[in-house]
Amino acid sequence: MNRFLGSLQKLPLRAFRTGTRKIHTAPVRSLFLLRPVPILLATGGGYAGYRQYEKYRERKLEKLGLEIPPKLASHWEVALYKSVPTRLLSRAWGRLNQVELPHWLRRPVYSLYIWTFGVNMKEAAVEDLHHYRNLSEFFRRKLKPQARPVCGLHSVISPSDGKILNFGQVKNCEVEQVKGVTYSLESFLGPRTSTEDLSFPPASSRDSFRNQLVTREGNELYHCVIYLAPGDYHCFHSPTDWTVSHRRHFPGSLMSVNPGMARWIKELFCHNERVVLTGDWKHGFFSLTAVGATNVGSIRIYFDQDLHTNSPRYSKGSYNDFSFVTHGNKEGVPMRKGEHLGEFNLGSTIVLIFEAPKDFNFRLKAGQKIRFGEALGSL
Asked: Mean pLDDT of residues grouped by 10 in the chain (379 residues)?
């Protein structure tokens, strides 16, 4: 058999005629050669098509009013996704955003983006598209002063434009990123070991970590997740009157955080790069976390000049702490409700986790659109 196969592999390329067509026959050994690129394209395309079909089927069921149980990604699917160089791609996207566009090209480029993502330029402080020299300036455009009135009747407002993914009480140290899909509270915020938290003993269990965050008797822990789409206003503001005492930066992946991915990947927000701001408001603990995403490696906090996100190198599972409490400033950085706090370069996610009395009520519905300045909840 070996001699037979060997003789087949030595056969030359032959040609013969059938009627008027000339047909070439390749050596048999070419049949055994695997071509990796076409195979990868075929399998990757097939898998992407399958995922699109699943999303299409889910949308159809949602329109019928049927509840769809979440179908979580397996470990190998998450590992495969994380192997994509999203951090490198996001840095390249950031460089591209800084390139100044020719004057004649600005209107068609920005108009295409406006049409694709439904941007309302009538709210922009500067409506003239030629004013924005590059994509970065366009993404970070400011709004007219009266475009987003800040609600003064409610204690917590939306810090940004976006879509409400989930909200409610935090129970058993697990937080829902969307209905039925959770992430660990301690993994998301990190351990309470910073200098300003020395009054809190280290957590001995998953449940005691939640108890550490609730500093006052009779209070509960609440959360709210807001997804910013690419067409939304990209700046975020202070959701209440509070004092920021600490910043923790988690380098990490930059996977997409759109609602479909949030339903598919468990602990998605814990995988991604994020900046956690913690402090206090009139009812106790308060935190705001800006979560990065694909093409959104750049997270900027206006009062924190030492923060640098999406660095080329980082240690997996590491984080960097910075305290705003100093010898000259015993309290931290005071923030007024509605005050400018930071910005993304594209869309992403804001997560609020805070304690409040038991009679705190959200004025929201999961899936609803919300704008900066509108009420999230009150007592």
From this structure: 52 48 49 55 64 68 65 81 80 82 93 90 92 88 88 92 92 80 88 53 56 89 92 91 95 83 84 92 95 78 89 78 85 93 84 94 90 91
Q: Which two tokens stand for residue 111?
A: 């108009």
- The values of phi and psi at residue 182, to 5°, are -120, 170
In whole angstroms, what is the distance from residue 239 CA to residue 340 CA? 10
- Which tokens in the block code for residue 217? 């008797």
Tracing tokens 């898998």 back to the chain, one arrives at 47
Q: What is the pLDDT of residue 13?
A: 45
Map residue 244 onto helix, strand or coil.
Answer: strand
Q: How far apart are CA 86 and CA 97, in angstroms?
A: 16
Rounded distance, CA 355 to CA 281, Å?
9
Which amino acid is residue 331, in one-letter code? E
Q: Which two tokens stand for residue 27?
A: 């050596």
- Catalytic (active-site) positions: 161, 237, 348
From residue 254, give the alpha-carbon distance in Å to each of 57, 85, 218, 258, 294. 27, 9, 38, 12, 5
- Confirm if 24 and 14 have CB atoms less than 8 A apart: yes
DSSP state of 122: G
In Å, how far from its chain's centre is CA 128? 30
Residue at token pair 């409400």: 164
pTM of structure: 0.77
H/E run at residue 341: strand 340-344
**In this structure, what are the phi and psi dihedrals at residue 324, rounded to the nearest 5 degrees?**
-90, -5
Q: Measured over all CA atoms, what is the biggest interatomic distance in the chain, rounded to whole angstroms?
A: 95
Cβ atoms of 141 and 126 within 8 Å: the answer is yes
CA distances from 214 to 38, 90, 200, 220 (A): 55, 37, 11, 7
DSSP secondary structure letter of residue 131: G
Q: What is the pLDDT of residue 50?
A: 64
Sign of CA dihedral 46, 47, 50, 51: negative
**In angstroms, what CA-CA distances link 159 with 188, 222, 236, 305, 307?**
19, 16, 5, 21, 20
- For residue 109, give Cα distances in angstroms to 101, 120, 129, 319: 9, 15, 9, 38
